[in-house]
Design a protein that fits this description.
The chain has about 170 residues and is mainly alpha-helical. It is built from five helices and two strands, in the order H-E-H-H-H-E-H.
Length: about 170
Amino acid sequence: MKKLAKFVAVVALIVGCSFASKAQNAVKIGYIDFNSLLAAMPGIDSVKIKLQTYQKTLTDQMDAMKAEFESKYQDYQSQAASMSDLIKQTKEKELSDLQGRIDAFQQKASQDLQTKQQELVAPFIDKAKVAIKDVAKENKFTYILNAIEDVVIYKDEADDVMVLVKKKLSIQ
């Protein structure tokens, strides 16, 4: 029993010492506006242009589908009084199906645009994260926070690592 008590005391002493030595290390926290960094990275403008072009293609297709719907709807309204019930039901079903395809296309287009954006921006995000990590290690930062509005309540301008990361990425 005495051996067990000694062992527990030794373990407690070792653990206590390791916590004390960790507590003596100063915590150094920096921050960066990640979105501003991405916006400043070379090549991001071409990503924006590619996304705008892709979005325009999707929008043009959507506009064509809506114009087709509008044309068919106006045709239906102008001739509805003279149509038989069977033709009215067929036209209404056709309009309903077209509206469903428009809604499905709009939802799929939104998802595709988001996927395309993630695909094109991912390499820039990865490169920025590597640079931030390198700057943190080189300058002995314990943490680097993203300085998004209302996330960082107080910040000392001296802890902004934007200049260091831009230098690491060779951005002016």
